[in-house]
Design goal:
This protein has 11 helices and 12 strands. By secondary structure, it is an alpha/beta fold. It has 2 domains: 1-92 and 243-335, Isopropylmalate Dehydrogenase, CATH 3.40.718.10; 113-240, Isopropylmalate Dehydrogenase, CATH 3.40.718. The strands form 2 sheets. A 10-stranded mixed sheet has the order 2-1-3-12-11-4-5-10-8-9, with helices on both faces. Strands 6-7 form a two-stranded antiparallel sheet. A hairpin with a 4-residue loop joins strand 11 (248-252) and strand 12 (257-261). The radius of gyration is 20 Å and the shape is globular. Keywords: Oxidoreductase.
Length: 335
């Protein structure tokens, strides 16, 4: 069997150091991948004058699987978000954000296990029709939901639930007010739910879902929702397990998948060997699951969990005093 080649985008700020950490751990776990390194973000802008060079797009397309660090899109300079561009370019319609409690973190809960499945290409977040009036007094944007887009994402969520032995899928919406867009999403979600009698289906208005996630998070298993609500809810869920440093993300389409740390590039601590690499390590575990390498995924997950639980060489955000390289070493020793 030919070796799987992974496209690697190290990213900006702390990106290179946490990606290096994840790759060292993948190698230590015996994952025999080839890696093709390409640039995007500020690193690419400095070298090529483009945030997302053609060569990078070609590598993502060619290898189908990408592991990426956080990227910086310059703010307010007319640059489109790189992440949004990648999602559109490769039709990565599903954004999958799992959160799971790790013993030893300073999180408020100890038994969280929730997956947020977010539609990744439509709705308010996709930035359609953004207009600001010439006098700067008015602004508008457009939200578009298609039946096809809604059906694809809800079906994806139920298939994921079935595959992973999950018991319940909650559709989160705002159909009581946004009767057109959110209304269509909910209508389609109900039709899809009827095809999965083996899985419990629930629906919840987004504001109520936010409150319940904070008060009684054990009510949730898999959440499926539209782009903007998913963006917000998945960060709320990350907060339940100790923050964005503990939350990975996958962007999945029919022909390509991109696995990433969901936090920012933290330029203030770049190059200081302080960053917690857990988010991107967990993203690489998601990648292994996607590739059908569950045994390796489980091995790495157990090693990370043990390091965090024991407090052995943990980073500052986990209550320790160590840096990226020490934490990585601690995980590798357990492997």
């Amino acid at each position: 069997m030919a070796k799987q080649t992974i496209t690697v985008i190290k990213g900006d700020g702390i990106g290179p150091s946490i990606i290096d950490s994840a790759i060292e751990i993948l190698n230590a776990a015996g994952c025999e991948f080839d890696y093709e390194y390409v640039d995007a973000g500020l690193a690419a802008l400095e070298k090529t004058g483009e945030l997302l060079p053609q060569a990078t797009l070609e590598a993502i397309d060619r290898n189908k699987i990408t592991l990426k660090g956080p990227l910086t899109t310059p703010v307010g300079e007319g640059f489109t978000s790189i992440n949004v561009t990648l999602r559109k370019q490769f039709n990565l319609y599903a954004n999958v954000r799992p959160v799971k409690s790790f013993e030893g973190t300073k999180a408020r809960y100890s038994d969280i296990d929730i997956i947020t499945v977010r539609e990744n290409t439509q709705g308010m977040y996709s930035g359609l029709g953004q207009i600001v009036s010439p006098d700067g007094q008015e602004a508008e944007a457009k939200s578009r939901i298609t039946r096809d887009g809604a059906e694809k994402i809800v079906t994806f969520a139920y298939e994921l639930a079935r595959r992973e032995g999950r018991k319940k899928v909650t559709t989160v919406h705002k159909a009581n007010i946004l009767k057109s867009t959110s209304g269509l999403f909910l209508k389609v979600a109900r039709e899809v739910a009827a095809r999965y009698p083996d899985i419990e289906s629930a629906e919840m208005i987004v504001d109520a879902a936010c409150m319940k996630l904070v008060m009684t998070p054990d009510e949730f298993d898999v959440i499926v929702t539209t782009n903007l609500f998913g963006d917000i809810l998945s960060d709320l869920c990350a907060g339940l397990v100790g923050g964005l440093g503990m939350a990975p993300g996958a962007n999945i389409g029919e022909g390509a998948a991109i696995f990433e740390a969901v936090h920012g590039s933290a330029p203030d601590i770049a190059g200081k060997n302080l960053a917690n690499p857990t988010s991107v390590i967990l993203a690489s575990i998601q990648m292994l699951d996607y590739l059908g390498m569950q045994d390796k995924a489980e091995k790495i997950r157990a090693a990370v969990a043990d390091v965090i639980k024991s407090g052995d060489r943990t980073t500052r955000d986990l209550g320790g005093t160590h840096g990226t390289t020490d934490f990585t070493q601690a995980v590798i020793e357990r492997l």
